[in-house]
Amino acid sequence: MTLLAVTDLAAAYGRIQILNGISFAVAEREFVGILGHNGMGKTTLLKTLIGAVRATGGQVQFEGRDVTDLPAYRRARLGIGYVPQGREIFPTLSVLENLRMATAIFGAADSEVIEPVLEDFPRLKALLDRPGGALSGGEQQLLALARCLCGRPRLILLDEPTEGIQPSIIEEIVERLTMLRDRRGLTVVLVEQNLDFIRALSQRVLIIQKGRITQEVTPERLADATVVSEFIGVSA
Length: 236
Fold this sequence. Notes:
By secondary structure, the chain is of the alpha/beta class. The chain has helices spanning about 40-50, 70-80, 95-105, 110-120, 135-150, 165-185, 195-200, 225-230, and strands spanning about 1-15, 15-25, 30-35, 55-60, 65, 80-85, 155-160, 185-190, 205-210, 210-215. A hairpin with a 2-residue loop joins strand 9 (about 205-210) and strand 10. Helix 3 (about 95-105) runs parallel beside helix 5.
């Protein structure tokens, strides 16, 4: 079943065109990676899918419903979650308060939403009273993921989750996301530059260049230094 369908999507910042007719589809329970040089439109694509940036053309469908013109909060209620680059947790709120912020739209008790999420992220259980800003970068990323899951998404848009975090947490994120796909049927669109991470999670990888999806490659092809250098400008 197709969960997300994007057709000829365009977006701009003022007169500066960023997305130039992007089309792709994501099936339920699929993990799709997106790779490209900096400035090619990766983050803008995710922000347009969640509704933080207005589409200037094209269409976004979620579960067969046109959501192109819906505001971000309505897309979130439909089941589209977003974990931004830099995590954007609330640094002065405790871990528990951060999680509660995500449950507000449901008015649900902690036992209904937060407790099951903590079972999926056991490292956070001992940190519930600690301010978000006091956590390590890796712990903040786990909190950002857990907070997103408290919104009960079916699809998560995940932007550069490994940026600035230690390898042990990166391995834990791979493990948690894989488990969530199997246990909850989670679907993920992943923007990432860490090649080991994107190979470990993605079933296929889309290459974005100048605001267009130009190619689809298998994760295995990212082991080819020539391919990597051409499309994202780093060595494998």
